[in-house]
Design a protein that fits this description.
heterodimer, A: 136 residues, mainly beta, 5-stranded antiparallel β-sheet, 3-stranded antiparallel β-sheet
């Protein structure tokens, strides 16, 4: 049983296209220059429908984390525990992104620790996609 | 102008509560039985019901209910937006608003779940593609409600120095209260601190017993105006206040809520207290929706019962149990040990406390608080009082 496959929609397609090329993109407002994530059709600060997609530094800090044990999805049976992190990007307006922390699932995880993005391609999936994982 | 003192809950009812998938009747039949039970409790002919309110996309359409029950007319039907249990108190508030505004005279709030007939909440639908917000989380194994909310609780614990063990007394209190409640699914199955500590992690910091059950059943409450409640000549619970909503950009996608380490009540709770003209010190008994115990902890903080830095000390078993704890909590067993009736069993228990009919009765309970749905949006909470609190 494969993991759930993310499918781009009209709103977030530039993000998923970026990950395929090893680029981490978020929205930025052409009006007020503020970063925005997750994607939305309008800038929540100045209410302009004028958002562009910009590449940002693929690094951040762990804002929160969890170690998941119970396999809630068939793809996770016999998988064992894994760590999910919420990473904030100080160089992109402190927006936050979800990903997995690469390495030993039992490693000690510290909120505030620096992490770097790792692009993880899934070329055999339909549609092919690339996830953004994080490494300490 | 507010709803305070204008509307009363005059009847409560529920079906037998089952482990998920064990109900022998359809979800719709369960809903009908709960509604009839609540009407009987109120001493009201079911044909006097003229409105329905529910939440969390309940599948049992008010028009079908009205047809099945042969109601002379349907005057109000209302669904509170939002998933999870966040709408439990809001649904009561919406029903009360309809009564106060004159849209309807007798409104039933109900919730029915038959998870054998339909999909469970705690397991993901297998395979396939995901899009929108789910595409940002599901592929990383952040799928279930427990996984979604553990992230918030972990951040809250980090910011305030709360230890994961602070969650334990919340679970133990619910199981303790369930032992005197024959309706409770976990009646006769007590939980010890040792068994809690030995239970497996679902997702850190939640152990098995930090997580709600999933059940089959239905529950209902009957609301009428305060004037009519007095004519019924039986003890009623009067609505003192109700509030719903969430903070600035709570639903920002992909876990980007600015006030992230929150149960979503930081703006809601002050509205509740203001409407009721009461504060945390005035509350005799609390029913607080437990999707996960960490959410209860945060809910109690945000309603002002203790500062986050006091959580480790305040949350003891003795403080949380009826009849004489400082803050008797979830006195029927709640979602953890009575029944996961999506929180509506908590509304019912709040009424029973004020009528003196709880199986874990708090002495002289006059003001009861119900907190619905931590960490989702919108959330809601409500205050009920006996007639002498008006």
């Amino acid at each position: 049983m494969p993991r759930p496959v993310p499918e781009a929609d009209q709103l977030d397609a530039p993000y998923w296209e970026g990950t395929r090329g090893g680029e981490l993109r978020v929205q930025r407002c052409r009006g007020c220059r503020g970063f925005q994530w997750g994607p939305e059709w309008i800038c929540h600060r100045c209410l302009a429908f004028d958002l562009e997609w910009v590449a940002v530094a693929p690094r951040g800090r762990i804002y929160s984390w969890e170690r998941a044990w119970h396999p809630v999805h068939p793809a996770l049976r016999d998988h064992g525990p894994y760590v999910v992190v919420l990473v904030e990007l100080p160089e992109a307006g402190h927006v936050r992104m979800i990903g997995n922390l690469i390495g030993d699932p039992m490693q000690e995880v510290t909120i505030g620790a620096s992490v770097a993005a790792v692009f993880e391609p899934h070329d055999d999936a339909t549609p092919a996609f690339t996830l953004v994982q994080w490494k300490g | 102008m507010s709803i305070r003192g204008r509307v009363a809950i005059v009847g409560v009812g529920e079906t037998a509560y089952y482990k998920h998938g064990r109900a022998r009747e359809s979800e719709f039949a369960l809903a009908l039985r709960a509604i009839l039970s609540a009407c009987e409790d109120a001493g009201i002919d079911p044909r006097q019901v003229d409105g329905f309110a529910s939440y969390s996309n309940d599948r049992n359409d008010p028009s079908r209910l009205a047809a099945a029950l042969g109601l002379p007319e349907l005057r109000f039907s209302n669904m509170q937006w939002g998933g999870g249990g966040g709408g439990g108190s809001a649904a009561v508030g919406n029903a009360a608003a309809a009564v106060a505004a004159g849209y309807a005279d007798c409104v039933v709030v109900f919730r029915a779940l038959a998870q054998g007939q339909f999909q469970r909440f705690g397991s993901a639908p297998p395979g396939g593609t995901v899009s929108g917000e789910a595409a940002l989380t599901f592929p990383y194994g952040l799928i279930s409600p427990a996984q979604r909310f553990a992230m918030r609780v972990m951040r809250f614990m980090h910011e305030h120095g709360v230890r994961p063990e602070a969650q334990r007394p919340i679970a133990l209190a619910s199981y303790h209260h369930a032992q005197s409640n024959p309706r409770a699914v976990m009646h006769g199955r007590p939980l010890s601190a040792e068994a809690y500590d030995a239970s497996r992690f679902i997702v850190e910091p939640f152990r098995l017993y930090d997580c709600c059950m999933e059940n089959d059943g239905a529950a209902a409450l009957v609301l009428v105006s305060a004037e009519r409640a007095r004519d019924l000549r039986r003890p009623a619970a009067y609505l003192l206040g109700v509030a719903q909503g969430s903070e600035y950009r709570n639903a920002a996608r992909g876990h980007n809520a600015p006030t992230y380490a929150s149960a979503s009540f930081t703006t809601v709770a002050p509205h509740l207290w203001e409407m009721a003209g009461l504060g945390a010190k005035d509350v005799d008994v609390v029913q607080s929706y437990e999707n996960f115990t960490g959410g209860v902890l945060m809910s109690l903080v945000e309603h002002g019962f203790f500062a986050p830095e006091e959580a480790n000390e305040f949350l003891t078993f003795d403080n949380l149990i009826a009849p004489r704890g400082r803050l008797p909590l979830n006195t029927s067993g709640g979602n953890l040990a009575e029944c996961y009736m999506h929180g509506l069993e908590l509304q019912i228990e709040a009424v029973r406390q004020l009528r003196g009919q709880s199986t874990s009765q708090v002495e002289d309970a006059r003001v009861g608080l119900v907190i619905s749905g931590p960490m989702v949006t919108p959330v809601s909470s409500m205050l009920l009082g006996t007639e002498d609190t008006l």
